[in-house]
């Protein structure tokens, strides 16, 4: 069985495993105050083109999302996001557990626009009883989105400009950031991400690391006491060095980008095979997640050899599913799948 | 510089590093549903002598504590614990962040007794305005305690009997459980722990693993929907396999016990050196944490070569400090320290 | 200026004011343990045809909603309700502030159906990753709804049957319950409400009292420790007697029903005037809230003499607005408004 | 039976009852935006000698405390207070339910000092692992305290100076403020209270009103969006006018002070009787709460005619109890009690 069901089916890049092995008996202080973390922070700041940014390492995506969001919002504020946003649908109400409402905006493709944010903001503040309604306090987006789509440079610039104007911090969830930056359709690079957001995170779990997410706080107003929030929410790893070592390795010799490109390339091969076969795509993704709509009998055949992720029923005889590639996906695995698709 | 400041200064046991390396490209499903986790669960159940226990893997201690506690308590209930309990002093209010008061009981040595619990309980329920006061809803202890002390079998039996009678679930924080079980002063083994608590966790972070804590839920009433709580609190690792692999290794060939014994043995060497030198001990610990009270000028000398942890000022010229050994501590490191102490 | 903007523009029924005056210097113990509260509880139990129900008095609607809901739900559960439900839109995220997501269901008229609940429930439990999603834990409805509409007996019976089957407690927000029970379109009486819900509240603030809501807990499983929850959430009035006196008066000589009927009758007069004038109605309400869609120039004229509540823009030249009657509305006020409408 | 058990045994001052009656059918908008509230705010600002202060009306003390405190603190911060502080012992963990730890300081008499605050603050910030500990974020005091004691002008000035220096907002719980201001031992007046705190509240529930507390926000930084917090926590009374009318009346013709003086005078009579009888006092209170230590057989006799509040067991045959007077206490009631005490 070959798994394409998600992008966390293997361990970590060999470079990371090697580095963990080599440093295993080096003694370091705890909680991210070690030299490996310092080195990783420096490399990430450089990659972001921002020497003033604060960089913190957390363990997982849900944890990172509720830690960042609860650090920003005042108790009566909520976070604007696409209705498909991870925080709205797949985190067991973690945001609400910190006391905040997720203010979901309609979205066909997983993205939201500056206009949507402005409209929501204006509607709130023009309501004479606005104090009876959750106040919009920040904006959350994911890039790539949960649907594999990408913000263009223009779209992100516009959204950020609106957020600045309305004083709503913009937080970008980069759980799959590498796959977005390296997409053939990408118009945003890492420096752009750092320029057009207030805070974002660079996903490790899904992009080459055993685990780990690097939060980059660009906006100075959001930096204060962030380590307290991490600790309170269980995100301060005792052996913080493990995160430092992993991100230091990912940001050495462009490893993060190379492995992301690999996954994207394989995903484009898969996409071509789906299109060639005549399968429509639920979302037009240029990243590592692909969403073909396939006849259910084709899917039944494929599932003898391949694991994929059911997305939604489209009609009586067709379903949309998700196939993921990742940094670890083997060329032969994709070739086998492509050829089995052709043979259906 | 040799670090004795805490018990998480190195990576993981070589056996674990090797196993992670070997399995790195095995594909598995996520979130702890993989075969490695299953195998680890089976071994832990066996070690506990309880085939019905639920076993869940989380990432860190603070996370485990607030996840378990918030899963048990009703909103108006609090958790009884020693005033020195980790949840009361070193978790940045993580318990309170889930809405619950920590009900701290006085404790000289880090332990609490069944009598203290009963007295608190009775005082609460005999108050005519008890509804104006936080209701005691469970009991939290750590074993070994934050002071390195141990519950005797009799003490734990008694505490548990009181808890059963009063219907207060008893939760044991075993962040350093191995060092407790393998102490020369131990009267409790793993099966006893599983017999005399409702839920407990087996610490991995401080005992041989890169990270990870194994929660063992013994009381069937506490099992329902626990995975929701883990996910909501950010503790459900995408690559749950990493936890499975680590605990499977620790519970193969008694590795967990062997490495714990190693640390305890070295700690006893240190303790002997402190006593021989005439240093009083702040707490009489038979586990991997030692708390000598030393002249400040001795400490100043030692800190040129060794890192230890400041605990408290005892008088104008003396301080209590903490030295920790762990699974990774080298014999030579302890020998060097002992000889430097003798030479002071 | 005559206010029709809401149903809490005046003080309380003269009968209540008189009783407060008469009892002002009677000494009573605090927190709802007095004889007036006991008497009121007995009368409410009788009105509900349920001698076992627990009755608690709280101060306001938002407070009552988050108190009841947070008492019922487990931390990872959410509450199903219509997207227009008060808890979803007009309580500043009070439910989320207690840690729970509001699971909004689409609703054209303010109501939800048993089928919607079942479908949501099934979708949740058939999701293989259901632990990543907020678990539906209870159902909230309002009767009358925020749109003035009413559940029929058949609809409520069906919804309750589904809730029982799926073990989801059903909570009915009766902020305007009197106006629902006394509507000419009503098919549900107070005993039905108590029969087909697990917990509900009888609104006082909008129906004759200075303030106050009477929570009736029918389901024995929801009764335990409820006074703790009230106290923790600030709802336990020191002079609880004030609530007892008010509800005792409202449930003496059918006062609650009489004053509700008065408001409904006046609302029907208004409705007739709107229809006669050719105004469409945004919702077809048979209770004290009426929602005509009127030309903006008509509204401009009316607002010189009358206050109403803006609801939504319908097109370039028309808006939907809300006119409320209440227990205190004077016949002459409605007559004046009707005649001014006719004259437009 | 005559009740001295607490200070909320009756309704409200006749002046308030009269005013509620007179205004009963005046129509007003809701939520504290009416003319009565405006008038009351103006009078309170004047009484405080601060025309810029924001004044908000809430319903009860517990509600006011958690609303103010949760509005000020960041999620990882706690509130410093005396171990006897109401928020620490008698609010069912309401502060913790908003996510914050109560940081209790030792206190023999119910008060805390600037030195204690500074010491706690310094200890926190000098801890190298301070991020693992709840950060002190504000200070809560009550005046009079729960023990009936009073801060002197010098003590409050000093405490406030420390708070300013350390940037910790100082919140004063004035549930019984009137009884403090009018005490024969008072050295603080209303203007002092407004000068030496950042925010405080003027208690109505225990001082002449049916219910209600007036929050006065002096520090401009604490004013923003406070109405959202009130609404979210269920404190925004629909008929806010009721609070406006009551406070407007209390601050007309010095009523608030006159009725407070009355209660204090009667309490001093009681105190004299206790002392004359040779009863020691648990706390030396010059306000409306008195805490004699009495032989249990004396108490048994008294309880046939009088209700008091049990405080604590002092020895085998003596108990400390609390007798309260209030604005409504009759001279004859005190005279009867005094004479019965003499006769014991």
How would you portray this structure in words?
4 copies of one chain form a homotetramer. Chain A is built from 14 helices and 13 strands. By secondary structure, chain A is α/β, with parallel strands linked by helices. The first copy, chain A, folds into 2 domains: 2-7 and 258-342, Aspartate Aminotransferase, domain 1, CATH 3.90.1150; 14-255, Aspartate Aminotransferase, domain 2 (3-Layer(aba) Sandwich). The first copy, chain A, has a 7-stranded mixed β-sheet, with helices on both faces. In chain A, strands 9, 10, 12 and 13 form a 4-stranded antiparallel β-sheet that branches. In chain A, helix 1 (14-22) packs across helix 11, helix 6 (114-126) runs parallel beside helix 7 and helix 12 (255-276) packs parallel to helix 14. The longest helix of chain A is centred in the last third of the chain and has 22 residues, at 255-276. The radius of gyration of chain A is 20 Å and the shape is globular. Chain A starts with a strand and ends with a helix. The model of chain A has no long low-confidence stretch (mean pLDDT 98).
């Amino acid at each position: 069985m070959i798994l394409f069901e998600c992008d966390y089916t293997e361990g970590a890049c060999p470079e990371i495993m090697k580095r963990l092995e080599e440093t295993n008996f080096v003694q370091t202080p705890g909680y991210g105050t070690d030299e490996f973390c310092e080195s990783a922070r420096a490399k990430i700041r450089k990659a972001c083109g921002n020497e003033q940014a604060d960089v913190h390492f957390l363990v997982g995506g849900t944890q990172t999302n509720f830690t960042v969001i609860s650090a920003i919002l005042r108790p009566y504020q909520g976070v604007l996001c696409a209705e498909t946003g991870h925080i709205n649908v797949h985190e067991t109400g973690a945001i609400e557990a910190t006391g905040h409402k997720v203010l979901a905006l309609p979205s066909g493709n997983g993205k939201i626009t500056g206009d949507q944010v402005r409209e929501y903001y204006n509607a709130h503040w023009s309501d004479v009883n606005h104090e009876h309604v959750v106040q919009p306090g920040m904006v959350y987006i994911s890039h790539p989105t949960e649907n594999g789509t990408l913000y263009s440079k223009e779209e992100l610039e516009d959204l950020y400009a609106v957020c600045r104007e309305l004083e709503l911090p913009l937080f970008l969830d980069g759980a799959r950031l590498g796959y977005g930056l390296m997409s053939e359709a990408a118009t945003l690079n890492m420096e752009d991400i750092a320029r057009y957001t207030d805070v974002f995170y660079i996903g490790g779990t899904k992009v080459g690391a055993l685990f780990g997410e690097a939060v980059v706080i660009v906006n100075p107003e959001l930096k204060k006491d962030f380590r307290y929030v991490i600790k309170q929410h269980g995100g301060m790893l005792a052996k913080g060095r493990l995160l430092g070592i992993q991100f230091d390795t990912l940001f050495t010799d462009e490893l993060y980008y190379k492995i992301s490109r690999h996954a994207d390339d394989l995903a484009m091969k898969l996409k071509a095979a789906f299109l060639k076969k005549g399968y429509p795509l639920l979302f037009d993704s240029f990243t590592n997640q692909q969403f073909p709509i396939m006849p259910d009998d084709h899917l039944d055949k494929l599932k003898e050899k391949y694991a994929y992720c059911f997305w939604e029923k489209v009609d009586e005889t067709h379903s949309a599913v998700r196939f993921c590639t990742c940094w670890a996906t083997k060329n032969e695995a994709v070739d086998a799948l492509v050829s089995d698709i052709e043979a259906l």
